[in-house]
Amino acid sequence: MRVLLVEEDRTIGESMQDALNVAGYGVDWMLDGESALSGFGTCTYDLVLLDLGLPKKSGTAVLSEIRGRNAQVPILIVSARDALEDRVKGLDEGADDYILKPFEMGEVLARIRAVMRRRGGHVAPIMTNGIISLDPTTREASRGEMHTRLSGKEFALLRALMMRPGAILSRAEIEDRLYDWNQEIESNVVEFIIHSIRRKLGVDAIKNVRGVGWMVSKEQ
User: Fold this and answer.
1) 131-135 CB contacts, 8 Å cutoff, 24+ apart
2) pLDDT tens profile 189-203
3) Nearest-angstrom CA–CA distance, 172 and 185
4) How far apart are CA 212 and CA 208, in angstroms?
5) pTM (2 d.p.)
6) Do residues 181 and 38 touch, judged by C-beta distance below 8 A?
7) CB 30 within 8 A of CB 39
8) Model pLDDT, residue 122
């Protein structure tokens, strides 16, 4: 799942980005309102985490414009503005939740899961190709009698493949789901993560198509 994080404070932003990455989310972090709207116009996001005290364009203006472009994307305000009128205004203008600073990332992650369940109307469905099953809520994967909890990057990679069983994803497509815009891509990280998943779910859990990319089988 790809998240647009809009946060002016670098210390808070770095902390949130790191925690979201560990939880298996891909994160694009913007420091001001104009960059946020530009990024939202070029990528498809599953969730927006939005501060209100932004330079160049206010968080309230960003909220209004994003909601005008996309009525469905979940938006969570993360702000130090604790006045009742600020919270009511944010929710009335289209935010799905309002989180007050300072906060614990455990609560933020729980709020994200809750909002995604509400938006979908149910708990995130189990993904399966008829061979492997993946639970997006718990990041647990199973195959036959094998059950395992995946790391953040293992989950992100396997989820990308499980979204389209039988389709081949190139290295660049997989790396796009593992890394944020400003992160340096590590050499051979895709192979390392795939090797780790294969150790947990079997050597044929992910298939390599030489010179093209990787896939999970589609049940025949």
Assistant:
1) 131/205, 131/216, 131/217, 131/219, 132/158, 132/162, 132/201, 132/205, 132/216, 134/158, 134/159, 134/162
2) 899 999 999 999 999
3) 10
4) 8
5) 0.62
6) no
7) yes
8) 45
